[in-house]
User: Fold these one by one.
Assistant:
Number 1:
Amino acid sequence: MLLSLKHQFLFVHIAKTGGTSVRAALARRRWADPWYWPMFVCSRLSHLSGHRIGSKLPRHAKIIAAQELLPREVFAALFKFAFVRNPWDLQVSSFHHIRRERPRYLGGHEDFAGFLRWKLDPERPPQYHLDTSIALQTDYLIDLRGNLIVDFIGRYERLEQDFGEACARIGIDPPKLPHRRQARDRSTDYRAYYDDETAALVARHFAPDIERLG
């Protein structure tokens, strides 16, 4: 999550949706925000306390955290935006990320189909681990009543175009998006990873996202 009180925006960072590039592109704007340094100090104090003082909005916090922590008038005045991603493509990206950086969280499953069946098997309890892509993307964007409370939802599939629109609504010239955390271990179209069974697993688990986000 990235908050700028000077430019009055709140970026909700859903994992594996291009958010690292968006954060990097907006970083210079953030440094020029006079509120950045008090926020930075609070963030460091939170880190040093083991996050026991609750003074930091985590990178992948849901928007409800900001709504609950910020004064109502401050939250209402912010331009709130996020990016989402095709859930079938996102699962492939997440698998490669975990296999590359945290293989111990694969649960002993070295191939994509086995890993997907393990973590999304409807007959078993949810497999909770550091794979944040198991969460619904819409959960990051709703209030306690289930209402979407972001002002703009961009698409990973048209990241530059939608980032430009978000910047226009913030009122700044769009900085160049750097290509951060690009996967170098996949080149195949995500659809090649699926058969009918595994595609249906994703369709079932992420049905609320598919219906609500199109």
Note: The chain has two domains: 1-85+137-179, 86-136+184-214.
Number 2:
Amino acid sequence: MKSEKEKMIVGEEYVAMDKELAAERLAARQAIHRYNATEPEQFKERAQILQQLLGTCPKTAFIEPTFRCDYGYNIHLGKAFYANFGCVMLDVCPIAIGEYVKFGPNVQLYTAAHPLDPEERASFKEFGKPIAIGDKVWIGGGSILLPGVTIGEGTTIGAGSVVTKPIPPRVVAAGNPCCVIREL
């Protein structure tokens, strides 16, 4: 029998109020609180916190405070990743981000989803879908990526976009819902 954590990570329906998951969310929030409370020159301390919190965090990855996540261990950053202020990554499922990816301010990634049926929602059951972002992607400020989205290598997502479906490689895409504007 799978634990609630095992079900969560693979995208099956799970109970979010599970004791193990609640303890892990609290530990992540404590680490994020320390991260966001660092002084501007405390680069080494920030790097140490992220390397302990995240699933994969190369030394060349950098996230400006404030940053928020659910668990941290489901976030996998590639080399030379940069996120500007206000980044949110709700990582109930894996978030895989390629190399040389850049986020503008207030970019939000949501792997968490909830049942549409109100009675099911009231049962505290949730599910998730992973997010994958290819190498050399730029995501403009204020963009939101919904559960299950993939962004192809070399793509640019315009500021304020709401990405609801996969976006192919080497395109410029923008809007709500986000759609391809032109190929590169």
Note: The radius of gyration is 16 Å.
Number 3:
Amino acid sequence: MNVTPWRVLLRRLVFPFLLCLCVMAWDVYFRPATGPARAVWTSSGVTHQPLVFQSRGHIPMPANTPAAHASSLVAMPLDSPYALMAFWFAGAKESAPDIGIAASAFDRHSKSWVAARFVVDRQALGRALGFGVRRLGNPVAWLDARQRLHLFVVATGLGGWAASRIVHLRQISNGSLLSELSFEPERVLPLSWFWNTSFLVRTAPMPLQDGGMVLPVHFELGIKYPVALRFDASGVFSGMVRMSRRTHLLQPTLVVQDESHWLALLRDQRAEGRVGVVQTLDGGQHWQDLPDLPLVNPDASVAGLGLAPGRMVLAHNTSAHSRNLLDLSQSADGLHWSSLQPLAQGAGTDEYSYPAMVWADDSLWVSYTDQRQRIAWQRFGTQPE
């Protein structure tokens, strides 16, 4: 029996190893770099009057759909019949074959949510992309400078969520009603030399003064870290930058301090975790890790929003080891937070999770998963309704 000497084996491995290094170096070198950007606050003319609870309820579900999770909210223009739209993934259960992206909208005239419908189908998306889509999840919506809706969704082929890709879809319908809304895939975002896998999206984009946006995402394959993606005013991907050197932080949510100073608040995967923080002082070109906030984080997604200078809000789970408490907090600097309003309170295995927020029609809207069965919502304004 011949045994290959270890020196021969080593030589045989050198070429594949060097090839991998060259591919990785090429990917980093030719990947678009981000320049400085200027952010805008999400509300116009918001005062520092206290936010007052106005109304709450559940967003309608598509018929015969028992499971829902991971909602996203997007404010609509003033000439739209809707104040805002909501997107989430729904079906028999998470990762079930019938999972699709559902949507509803809050009608300005009737002051109620319209009937929900599915706007992205897993099988149809797979056919359009040319590969099988096994799971769909975590839709994130954005309205570009031409008032077209974009959706960014997590899609998996083989493997679990860690083998996901982020698919960018663009609105192709011209009508203003939800019943007319349709999307087509633009592309799988080119984020990794490893078949663009292991990047996931979850939280809302941050608008920029040039009409573009920054989309926070995270890498998740063994280690976890946040990444900021840049898009121009028409939705063209234009660059990316890693936001933290730490390897246990995911699902960043962006909060504006001023036009060039932003914070990202993050989910912490560790036991006894706290809400993580990173910051940029130069409009997203460079990021630095900051000490964790004193806020507990039970490995749960958070949602932050910079409403106006010196006024920030955060929806987060406040029980150390479960998702049965969800609260709304406020801050003037993004580092020191105080409780503003309980959003949902339960016990035991109750779950209120994955919050989303948006400012629309002079109100703060919050949505969140309720027991993995429905999407709940609440509205806050500066005056009682």
Note: Helices lie at 6-30, 122-129.
Number 4:
Amino acid sequence: MYTFLVNLSILDIASTSCTLPKLLSILSTKQDTISFAGCITQLYFFLSLSCAEAILLSIMAYDRYVAICNPLRYVIIMNLRYCVCLSIIAWIVAFLDLSGHAVLISRLKFCASRIIDHFFCDLVPVLKMSCSDTYSVELLTYIEGAILGMATFFFTLGSYAFIISTILKIKSLQGQGKAFSTCSGHLICVTVFYSTLLGSYMRPRSYYLPKHDKFFALLYIVLVPMLNPVIYSLKNEEVKKVLKSLQDGLKGHTREM
């Protein structure tokens, strides 16, 4: 599980690093410009990292499934080598999968407008600027969204269906609570991730409004990376012990003063 948490932390840092520094630069210098190559690069990395996070969360759901539904074989099945291989696959698939978008978008003509009605180069605002036919890009987006996006979503959903079924078979309430606590942190992260992602992209094009897009994008870029470490830190017993010792130390220091 820690192997996947390391990768999740790297993804959160990378996703915010490809969007927020440019936004902060625009706010501080008032120079709201970006090169064409920079825009395509930002778009590619943002989409690839989002895709990698969806795959990684589905892998983590499988990890929780094995831990709860097959606990005696967990160490054998989810060994370090297997976890590292799954993590590498998530990164490779995501970055290869979105390379087609970057190539197709880079070939479009942008003569209609040069103003991006967004605070970073997102897919829909960039396509709205183009005066070329964007059918191929949109078709590729729908196909990949249906194959990869829905596959990871339903794989996660299926894993939790088996997890909940197994938890309900546990007779004692204490056992049910202990089993549920092992996956509650991941379940919260999945809920926040997919709710913001669905709000951003899974809407009819006629309902895309710039204000709504910016709101959901800001939630996705800031809220998800900020909540993930907090959720998993509060669920970690070692972190709780450290926080408790720090609290006790501060109380003792206050009494001495």
Note: Residues 2-229 form a domain with the Rhopdopsin 7-helix transmembrane proteins fold (CATH 1.20.1070.10).
